[in-house]
Amino acid sequence: MTEMTETTAHSTPSTATAPEAGDLLRAEQVTMRFGGLIANKDVDFTIPRGSIVSLIGPNGAGKTTFFNQLTGMLQPTSGAITFDGTSIIGLSPHEIVELGVGRTFQNIRLFGDMTVLANVMVGRHVRMKSAWWQSLLGLPSVRAEEEAVRQRARELLDMVGLRRGYEEEFAKNLPYGDQRRLELARALASDPKLLLLDEPTAGMNPGETARMTQLIRRLRDELQLTVLLIEHDMKVVMGISERITVLDHGELLAEGHPDEIRSNPQVIEAYLGKGAAGT
Amino acid sequence: MPGRPPRLNLVNLFLWLLGGGILVLAGVGAFLTLSQGRLSGDQWESLIVAGIALGSVYALIALGYTLVYGILFMINFAHGEVFMWGAFTAYFAATALDDAGMMDANPILALFLTLLTAMLVSMVIAIILERVAYRPLRGAPRLVPLITAIGASLFLQYTARGFYGSGVRAYPSYGGLFEGTIDIGPLTMPIEDAVVVVAALALMLALYFFINNTRTGRAMRAVSEDKDVAAMMGINVDRIIVTTFAIGGLLAGAAGILYTLLFNQVHFFMGFLPGIKAFTAAVLGGIGNIIGAALGGLTLGILEQLGPNLFLTGYNIPAPNQLKDVLAFTVLVLVLIFRPSGFLGRKENV
Amino acid sequence: MPPLLRRAVITGFLGGAAGIHVSLVGMVEDFQGRDTIADIVSVGTMLPILIAIVVGWSAGSRMRAPLIDPTPRESLLFGTLAGAVTGALMALFALFINTVDVAWILSNAKPSLADLLWLDQGPVVGSLLLIIGGALFGAVGAVLHVLPGLISRSLAIGGAVTIVVALMEPFLGAVLRNVGLRFLEGFLYASGGLTLPGFILVFALVAGGVYLWRTRGHGTKERVEAMPADRRRIGKIVLYLAFIGLLLLLPQIVGSRLSEVVGTIGLYVLLGLGLNIVVGFAGLLDLGYVAFYAVGAYTTAVLTSPASPLISPELPFWGALPFVIVAAAMIGLMVGTPVLRLRGDYLAIVTLGFGEIARLIFLSEWAKPIVGGAQGILSIPPPLPFTNHPQVIYYPILFFCILAAIAASRLAASRVGRAWNAMREDESVAEATGVNTTKYKLLAFGLGAAFGCLSGAFFAAKIGTIFPNSFEILVSINALALIILGGMGNIYGVVVGAFVLVGLPELLREFAEYRLLIYGVVLVVMMLLRPEGLLPSRSRRAELHEDQGDDEAMYEHEAGVDTGRPVVTG
């Protein structure tokens, strides 16, 4: 374990410095309309550097829509989003990845017919420098970079706990839990500062869920990440989060420490109304 | 991906310049042509009339694309060939009837009989097509059925060539009844064109009625909304899909004979261009939408007849009608760039 | 009706339909001139025979729904029956066209066709022969299920290869003559096909070879793998050198007439490699690929030909080449940009439109002052000074093919290739993973265009004259069919595909007529049975065979998960 920490620490110099104080991501008055439907209304939201923040809310509360705006897959109708001091409004998803936002998907979306290793290496794409014509010429620098990236991909697979020896297996042939881990490794490969996880424990049994929660916390510590989760499993949310934001009907309902959220009457009402408070 | 509003970047800039440039060129061309008075009012009128007739044929073929797309979300590339087989069948039926003297004796009945045979043969081909080429591949990666469709299209084309030969065959005429003109409102129309328009219109109305008022039609709509839910409601999805292909085939067969009425000849390659143009019409009207297909067909037909003369003559381009297919394809590209949902389409379809 | 019987009858009917189809399109009659076995079985006669064999084979195979494994006796019985049904249908068909005159509709349905099907034995004996023959060859097909798997596989491969060897008579015969093996040629080939001894010899060699390789071959493979790395490396290099030597000597080996064909194959290899980037790597189904080919050819023609109507700088071929590349980049962007946001099928049809636009513009009166309209452009100079001899022009084409193959394989193995594959798998996830999909789509189109234009440039210089009608959609279809036959995404597949789909029709005049019909069948059958192509790239294979994942590896893996996964602790 210590060995692993060392390798990762020096291969990601960008995040090796101690986290500065302040907010890594700041969303102000974000509103998203689809025709007449308002999915997000005036959402103010911040993520402090180095924290693990959860975004919760009943089904249809606009969580995923909000998530998609953070990753550039949707553009907010109005409002501002800054990441690490840069406005990301109007940027394409790949540009936002380049700034340092990595994500996973609610329903796992791997490149199923590419190998496990290739999946992670695609994740590294934004951090690779060789241009297409350099690859065409087969320059030594290209080969060196390729080898380094392969190495890094293996490290990441180790780090998320994917067994060695299946690097050449097709991603779609992995069991469910491993697919989740692979998706995580692919997201980590871009050296994100902020990791967005869309229901990372969906469909997992309690044992797997516990391991995934530990993994997320460990990754945060080792890679100096900031993590934003969408999660339905309240046990996970309460256990892992340092801050929780509750959305309901597209609007910000409450924000605060898990204990505050747990006792917030509005939140309880929103959930009880949907019959989901028991979880 | 749900709609990301366009941002100003190089790609969009290029596309807007391209589209805007073409529209400006077309506008200036039209102005030059009209101001020089190159064509007389009668000439314009006959172009429009021809366009309406041609457009109604396109609309019939377009319906086949749109129906299948509405249900399977795939473009049946081989649909143009179904149309071609209809035209060939019509040719043989008409020749046989002509030999029997029926074309002169009772042209309406003869037309009806040829229409019926052509529609039936096209329907059978469409059904076989679905069974052999598409059904086994449902759920396969997107490229696979597409390539199969291209293969099926080649197969049907060159089977026709092998069976019937590679020459152009002239279609016999339906006696004296279809000669002369008829006045419809402000337009003077050749009777042949009027027959085409009326027949197409009747078929489209029948389809509209069928879709909206019969059990099977309602089931078709249900399947196009959501296959899984429809299956849960006890609808036999496979049967509905076959029905859809069959209806598309019937309409394409009818279009085949109407097209030969306009152009008087059949050829094994004749399905290719009308096929693509009808697809363009379907996209123009909003693919998946029945009224849209009709509107798109008419628009494209008129544009094809009128366009080259209107937009290009002003620039002194020689033989502008050579470029009418270029015009049709340009329309397709422009529509897909700027309004991929067409006139009446659902937005999520593209 | 018992399911096996039912299936046998249905299969027999389908076979009959196929037999009638090949007869009606004219293949049976047109292929009489070419023999599989000289003076005994013509290629035309072989078609129904092959159909009967396939019918017998499928009627005797394992049934899926309901799941039935026929006993050997059942296999044989139903295979024979199905073959007989096929034969009977064809007999009925022959009788029909012999008595009813339908030739005014179906131009090949003449009594002469009936005579041919009856083997000139008259209706009664002929019909009997058809039925008995059908049953016999149906049984031959079914026997493949009865024999041990290895033997039947050896026989099937032997049969297929022997037929190909017979078809390749013009090519292989010329090769044998040119390398001084005239006596072997005389033994194997008679004009039009294999001799009977030749047929038996080739069949025995191939079938026996396959059998031996499968039974004893493991040792060889292991021995090679056991060799020390440097010796294996040397072996590899020797193999490569031998291959390159063969390529260099090819024009001398095959002679001047066939060098022409090989040159054409080379042009299609270039086209295929380019289209493979767009379709195979990036997953963008471009049906208008001919536009690139045309632009390359016309750019070359205008810049080099003294007969170019308006602009005629009369550059040498190699001086025009940089301009061709620039033109390629431009046309690649022109086609690529508008289709950036289109889904697969829309993209296909719009690019199809672009291909037609290009041809129509080159054909039009409007562009005639520059590109010559329907008369085209004449007297385009050859790439190497003074000579356009096919044995010479082969070399620059070969050079660029090798260059293109190296370029394509390097790209495939790099960051670029991975980005393309990711895009092909799931465009929006690729974008969310950091791939600039706009850029990589345009790059695919640009590089594809470069290869296509290069091929077009050589086409113009090789032929010396170009007309708009050389650039019909069928060029795109050709290129598409060959990468699909060979295996999308695979570079060797492109070469094999080009040899089979371009080479064969060029060699066999009779095939040229049915080329596109055969392509259609190839496309459909490949998609239904083997979508990954003959020589699949690894990932395509997995992708297109959803239902046949690597079960074993999967199993092992799952077992491994329970026991060996390192437990992650905080």
Q: Helical segment tally of chain B?
A: 13
Beta percentage of chain A is 15-25%
Query: Order of helices and strands of chain A, N to C?
Result: HEEEHEEHEHHHHEHEHEEHH
With strands numbered from the N-terminus, the spatial order across the biggest sheet of chain B is 1-4
Q: Indicate the structural class of chain A.
A: alpha/beta
The rounded distance between the terminal residues' Cα atoms of chain A is 34 Å
Biggest interface pair, residues each?
B-C, 59 and 62 residues
> Radius of gyration of chain A from the CA trace?
19 Å
Round the mean pLDDT of chain A to the nearest integer and report it. Answer: 82
Low-confidence stretches of chain A: 1-19, 275-279
Q: Describe the strand arrangement of the main beta sheet of chain A, using strand numbers.
A: 6-7-8-3-9-10
Number of strands of chain A: 10
- Provide the succession of SSEs of chain B: HHHHHHEEEHHHHEHHH
Helix percent of chain B reads over 70%
Low-pLDDT residue spans of chain B: 1-6
Largest sheet of chain A: 6 strands, mixed
Number of helices of chain A: 11
List keywords for this structure.
heterotrimer, A: 279 residues, alpha/beta, 6-stranded mixed beta sheet, 4-stranded antiparallel beta sheet, 11 helices, disordered N terminus, disordered C terminus, C: 570 residues, mainly alpha, two-stranded antiparallel ribbon, 24 helices, 2% strand
Structure description:
- The complex is a heterotrimer of chains A (279), B (350) and C (570).
- Chain A is of the alpha/beta class.
- Helices cover 40% and strands 22% of the residues of chain A.
- Chain A has eleven helices and ten strands.
- In chain A, strands 6-7-8-3-9-10 form a six-stranded mixed β-sheet, sandwiched between helices. Chain A has a four-stranded antiparallel β-sheet with strand order 2-1-4-5, with helices on one face.
- In chain A, α1 runs antiparallel to α6.
- Chain A is globular.
- By secondary structure, chain B is mostly helical.
- Chain B contains 13 helices and four strands.
- Chain B has a two-stranded antiparallel ribbon.
- In chain B, a hairpin with a 2-residue loop joins β2 and β3.
- The N terminus of chain B is likely disordered.
- With 570 residues, chain C is mostly helical.
- Chain C has 24 helices and four strands.
- In chain C, strands 1-2 form a two-stranded antiparallel sheet. Chain C has a two-stranded antiparallel ribbon with strand order 3-4.
- In chain C, α1 packs antiparallel against α3 and α4 packs antiparallel against α5.
- The longest helix of chain C is centred in the middle third of the chain and has 53 residues.
- The C terminus of chain C is likely disordered.
- Chains B and C meet through α1, α6, α11 and α13 of B and α14, α20 and α22 of C.
